Amino acid sequence: MMKLYTPETREIDCSQTRKNVAKWFDVEYSKYQRLASLPLLPNSVLSLAPARSTAHANTAEDRTVSRANAKQVLEFVNAILDTLDERSQKIIRSRHIQKLLSWQVEEIVNLSRSQLYAQDCKACAQFAQTMDLTAGTNLAAYKETSDNER
Fold this sequence. Notes:
By secondary structure, the protein is mainly α. The chain has five helices and no strands. The chain has helices spanning 14-37, 59-82, 86-97, 102-109, 113-135. Helix 1 packs across helix 2, helix 1 crosses helix 5 and helix 3 runs antiparallel to helix 4 (102-109). The two termini are 29 Å apart.
């Protein structure tokens, strides 16, 4: 029997979730971008890595597989972004992927600074919850609830 996912019922901490998402894009996403954009090198290219045992001797194949995996991750993230509303997509792509300054993002989405912050938190919360559900990340942060509130 198939088990359905039980949605999270705790209140999301938008500020912390936004920080988690920003850090994920700074660290993880940028790592996948760099890896996916590496050129394929012929086998005869000198490796700067220390010599490996014969079990790991096929570094060209390893690089190709790593590069392909990184491209798949980027495509997956883009598919998740495509599920968000247009404004949320623009905010995440311009602010967290392209690293534009706040005033530039404000102009793109036609929002004030405070409105942008609120919409960025909302967009990050949607992105984080979808990533957590589909990719097993832990980007969404939740507010602590006391025993009386449960």
